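dumping this here before i forget
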Amino acid sequence: MRLMIAGGGGFRVPLVFRALCAGPFAGLVDELVLFDVDGSRLAAIEAVLRDMPADRGSAPAVVVSTDLEQALTGTDMVFAAIRPGGTAGRIADEQIPLRLGLLGQETTGAGGISYALRSIPHMLQLAEAMRRHCPDAWLINFTNPAGMVTEALVPVLGRKVIGICDSAGGLVQRAARAAGAPLKEGTLDGVGYYGLNHLGWLYRLAPRGTDLLPALLSDHAALETMEEGRLFGQHTLLQLGCLPNEYLYYYYQTSQATEAIGQQRETRGASIHDQQQSLYPSLLQAPHPYKVWDAARRSREEGYLAEARTHGEQRDESDLAGGGYERVALSVMRALSGGGTAQLILNVPNSPVLHASSTAEVAVPGLPADAVVEVPCEVTPDGALPLPQDRPDGQFLTLMQHVKEVERLTIRAVVAGEREAAVQAFAAHPLVGSAPLGRQLLEGYEAAFPGLSQLWA
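structure:
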C-alpha cells in the first residue's frame, strides 16, 4: 500500500512512521510519501525518521516530495494534516479574540472559525487533486477543525473522506479503565457517545450490558484517575450525568479558561511557535535528531490544556503517551483495506445508520442527515458507517445544533465566497454571541491574514 501524508513536514509525522514499523500496523504500508510545501521541514522530518530506532525490515520506504501530482499518483490512502499559516497563524487565531476579551483557543470559538477559513480552501484543492490523480483513494482527515473540514469535503469526495480525532476515543478508553472494564482496542461494545468534533459526551458505558457510567460518576477516587474527572470535577459531572469531551471545558468554564490563558506568559500557539522555530533547524544539525524531536514531543504533550490545570497538577504518564491520533488513522486504514472490522469514534455524515433494519434515519437524532457528526462507527472496506445513538438530552442537542449552524455558515463563507456568512458565523458562536464582536473578529483576522479577503473578492 502507498500512503501519502499531506503535511508531511508536520511535527507528529514521526508518530505515524513509528507505528508503521512495529506492532499491529507493521507491514501495512510499503511506501510512505511525505508531501509538504516546505522543503526544509520535509528534510528535518526525514532526518528524524532516518535516526528513529526501528525495525528496518518492516519499515516502509520513505519518499519526500513538494510536487502534489507526483505525491498523489498511485496513492491508495491519503492522510491530511495541514496548517495553512503555520504556527504563526495559530498565534493570531488565539490572540485576536483575547484582545476582545473572548476565549482564544486553536479549534474552539473564534480561533477555530479563523482556522477553518484558512484550512478549507486548501483542503478542497487537495480533494479535487485526489479526484484527478488517485480517484479511488481514501482521505483520512485530521486537519483541524476536523469535523468542519470533513463536512466541507463530503460534496467532493462523498464517503471517501473520514475525519478523525483521538480525543473522543481517548476519553472512552480512560473511562473504561477507570470503571475497571478496559475495552479491547477496536471495539466499542455498549459505548454511547454523540457530538461534533471537540464537542461530545460519553453518555453510556456498558461493555457487558450493564451501564457502568453512573457508578463511575459517583466514585470520586476513580474519577481522579482520569484527566476528564480532574478537569471538570465530580460535582459538574454528576449534574451532567455523563463525561464530556475535554474541549467542553471551554464551554463550561469559559471565564476561568479565558482568564487562565490571558494570565499565561504566552499563548499555547506562541509557545509551540517558539519551540518549532528552533526545533526544525536543530533537527537538521543534531547528531541524533530523533532524540531531539522526542524530547520536544514530550514537552509539547505536557503543555496540552495547561490553562485547565491551574493548581500545579501534572499530567499522568498515561496522558503523556502521545500519538493517539495516528493509531486511530492507521486503524481506519487497516479496516478500509480489508484488515478486519474496527469500531472507532469518527467524524462522518449523520446518515445512513449502520443497520438497514433500524427505524432511525440518522445516527444522532435532532441533527441534519448530511451534517458531519462525531460518533461510534463500524469501519469495513465499504467505509465508516455510523452507529445509531440515543437522542441527546436538550442542553446537549441545543449546543450541538447551535455550533453546527456556525460550522455551516463558515463552510458557506468559503464555498460561496460570502463574507457576511463569515461575520454571522463569528457572531453566532456561543462563545461570542454578538454581531459587533463578530464583525470585529473578522476584520481582525482579515488584517492578520490578507488572503482571507480573496475568498469574497
